[in-house]
């Protein structure tokens, strides 16, 4: 089966447990983390994860809902978007 | 494929903080195949074709919103110009009945507007076209989601002044019959109207189009303003470069979503309209970009140059990003739908005359502005004719969407709320052009149209 790659981006104030909390959720959803990196940009903490959803039984709306509740719990912005949008916008 | 945190952050923040969205996706639907000698059967077929396909549009668009995390703000339908298919049923009563069927199709299908309840009259008017224009005040009074247009000229046919002369009276009647003259916001008169424009009120499914098509309007004035603000020391050439690069990216994103939507619906993809379109949301202003260039309030001296620079950069970036750029692909500078435009009128920085000048270098013309309710019909027609002459002579689309608000004077204002915003009533020239307008006839096509 082909990989189904999505980017999760987290923007907000740096605090303990962001990576742990999201990784735990992804693990339980059977979503594999392919790549992860983070950076402080200006006053923001920015993290991105490239994840593969092909083995997950969950639909993207369920994953989005799960991330939304982590987002309000940790008070950071979390987005999940299919990799194609980034490839199209940033690579010719 | 490796992408940097910076690139991910750039896209994510365009959506989170700079109001990047797909402003509209518009399903063009041919309704010529619904024509029937039995009028009830005709309206029923139109209702079914539109409502069923609208439901599909909404379902597929929502799936893509989730997949890509980019909101698709408006989902709409445009149809074959109505007067064409109503030729053999053209009574005022039938037009109103057809409008009600379309309005119901929009509501049941879940789309917020249906465009195309109009006519192409650039050289002359058929009796169906005349009955249509006559029926519009009643149509707007009994429907919520119907949008109408007239194309009254092209640069190869010239302009039909007889058609223009019917508009002022129609608008004034519409203003009386609809709350705060809101019906007038759903009518636009064009020259050189594109057949694949996805934006309301002027969208229609052109007669050269196939059975159905997906057209998409992408918009990110907030994204462009943000990049302008980050590049304060740029000269004009550099400024143009940074805008081009940004528009390139957002157009590519829009095209991806449009193509996938069309594919998932099993119909051909039409065009991406790269017009910058404002909303009244904070920061989502086109005038805000011009002011970020270093113009105190839009409308002051220098604004025409600024819009010209912006427009050219947007087109260059968009044209590189997509082979399917179409529709209007200019810049919308409506008054009521843009916070900074409203502010500029209230500050007396922006007059109707300057707005006309700005429209000479951007595509869309005089849009969503209010004039006093006692403005004579002929003056309304003259304002329209002036604006459209700019389009005819310069081989470009121009349009007018004007609201004569009953009982209001210049300096007062009318608040529509929501997407339509607040319209300050603008001063019009009080001297008459009645005798000139009453000459009627057709403005001959300009010599620049003779290219064969």
Description of the molecule:
- The complex is a heterodimer of chains A (92) and B (452).
- Chain A is built from three helices and four strands; from the N terminus they run βαββαβα.
- Chain A has 92 residues and is an alpha+beta fold.
- The relative contact order of chain A is 0.29.
- Chain B is an alpha/beta fold and 452 residues long.
- Chain B folds into two domains: 166 residues, Anaerobic Ribonucleotide-triphosphate Reductase Large Chain, CATH 3.20.70.20; 225 residues, Anaerobic Ribonucleotide-triphosphate Reductase Large Chain (Alpha-Beta Barrel), CATH 3.20.70.20.
- A five-stranded mixed beta sheet of chain B has the order 3-2-1-9-10.
- In chain B, helix 2 packs parallel to helix 4, helix 4 crosses helix 5 and helix 7 packs across helix 14.
- Chain B starts with a helix and ends in a 9-residue tail after the last strand.
- At the A-B interface, strand 1, strand 2, strand 3, helix 2 and strand 4 of A face helix 1, helix 2 and helix 9 of B.
Blueprint (SSEs and pairs):
The complex is a heterodimer of chains A (92) and B (452).
Chain A: E1 5-12, H1 18-28, E2 32-41, E3 44-52, H2 60-74, E4 77-82, H3 83-90
Chain B: H1 5-17, E1 21-29, H2 39-68, E2 72-79, H3 82-85, H4 92-109, E3 114-115, E4 119-120, H5 127-142, E5 148-151, E6 153-154, E7 158-160, H6 161-164, H7 167-177, E8 187-191, E9 212-219, H8 221-229, H9 236-265, E10 269-273, H10 286-293, H11 303-321, H12 339-346, H13 352-359, E11 365-372, H14 377-393, E12 398-405, E13 413-417, E14 421-424, H15 434-437, E15 442-443
Parallel strand pairs in B: 1-2, 2-3, 4-5, 5-8, 9-10, 11-12
Antiparallel strand pairs in B: 1-9, 6-7, 7-15, 8-12, 13-14
Helix pairs in contact in B: 2-4, 2-9, 4-5, 5-7, 7-14, 8-9, 8-10, 9-11
CATH topology of the largest domain in chain B: Anaerobic Ribonucleotide-triphosphate Reductase Large Chain
What is the strand arrangement across the widest sheet of chain A?
Answer: 2-3-1-4
Helix content of chain B: 40-55%
Order of helices and strands of chain A: EHEEHEH
Average pLDDT confidence of chain B is 95
Label the CATH architecture of the largest domain in chain B. Alpha-Beta Barrel
Structural class of chain A: alpha+beta
By DSSP, the count of extended strands of chain A is: 4
The rounded Rg of chain B comes to 21 Å
């Amino acid at each position: 089966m082909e990989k189904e790659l999505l980017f999760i981006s987290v923007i907000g104030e740096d605090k303990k447990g962001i990576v742990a909390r999201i990784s735990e959720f992804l693990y339980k959803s059977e979503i594999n983390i392919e790549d992860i990196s983070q950076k402080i940009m200006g006053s923001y903490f920015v993290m991105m994860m490239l994840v593969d959803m092909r083995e997950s039984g969950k639909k993207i709306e369920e994953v989005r809902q799960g991330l939304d509740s982590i987002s309000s719990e940790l008070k950071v912005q979390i987005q999940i978007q299919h990799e194609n949008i980034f490839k199209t916008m940033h690579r010719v | 494929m490796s992408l940097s945190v910076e690139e991910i952050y750039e896209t994510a923040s365009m959506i989170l903080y700079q109001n990047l969205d797909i402003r509209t996706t518009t399903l063009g639907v041919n309704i010529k195949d619904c024509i029937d000698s039995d009028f009830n059967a005709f309206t029923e077929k139109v209702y079914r074709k539109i409502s069923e396909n609208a439901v599909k549009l909404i379902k597929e668009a929502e799936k893509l919103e989730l997949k890509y995390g980019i909101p698709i703000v408006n989902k709409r339908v445009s149809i074959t110009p109505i007067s064409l298919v109503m030729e053999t049923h053209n009574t005022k009563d039938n037009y109103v009945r057809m409008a009600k069927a379309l309005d119901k199709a929009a509501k049941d299908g879940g789309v917020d507007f249906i465009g195309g309840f109009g006519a192409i009259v650039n050289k002359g008017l058929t009796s169906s076209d005349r009955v249509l224009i006559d029926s519009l005040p009643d149509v707007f009074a009994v429907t919520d989601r119907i949008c109408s247009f007239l194309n009254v000229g092209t640069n190869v046919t010239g302009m039909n002044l007889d058609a223009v002369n019917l508009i002022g009276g129609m608008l004034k009647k519409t203003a009386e019959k609809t709350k705060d003259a809101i019906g007038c916001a759903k009518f636009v008169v064009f020259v050189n109207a594109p057949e694949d424009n996805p934006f309301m009120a002027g969208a229609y499914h052109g007669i050269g189009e196939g059975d159905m098509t997906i057209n998409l309007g992408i918009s990110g004035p907030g994204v462009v303003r943000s990049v302008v603000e980050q590049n304060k020391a740029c000269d004009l050439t550099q400024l143009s470069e940074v805008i081009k690069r940004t528009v390139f990216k957002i157009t590519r994103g829009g095209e991806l979503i449009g193509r996938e939507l069309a594919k998932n619906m099993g119909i051909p993809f039409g065009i991406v309209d790269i017009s910058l379109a404002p909303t009244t949301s904070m920061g989502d202003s086109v005038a805000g970009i011009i002011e970020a260039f270093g113009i105190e309030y839009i409308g002051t001296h220098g604004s025409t140059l600024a819009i010209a620079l912006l427009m050219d950069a947007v087109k260059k970036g968009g044209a590189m990003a997509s082979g399917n750029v179409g529709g209007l692909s200019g810049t919308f500078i409506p008054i009521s739908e843009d916070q900074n435009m409203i502010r500029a009128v209230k500050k007396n920085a922006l007059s109707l005359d300057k707005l006309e000048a700005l429209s000479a270098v951007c595509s869309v013309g005089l849009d969503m502005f209010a004039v006093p309710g006692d403005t004579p019909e002929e003056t309304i027609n003259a304002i329209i004719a002036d604006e459209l002459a700019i389009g005819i002579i310069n081989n470009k689309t121009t349009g007018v969407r004007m609201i004569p608000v009953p009982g209001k004077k210049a300096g007062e204002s009318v608040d529509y709320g929501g997407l339509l915003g607040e319209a300050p009533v603008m001063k019009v020239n009080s001297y008459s052009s009645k005798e000139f307008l009453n000459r009627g006839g057709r403005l001959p096509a300009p010599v620049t149209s003779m290219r064969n």
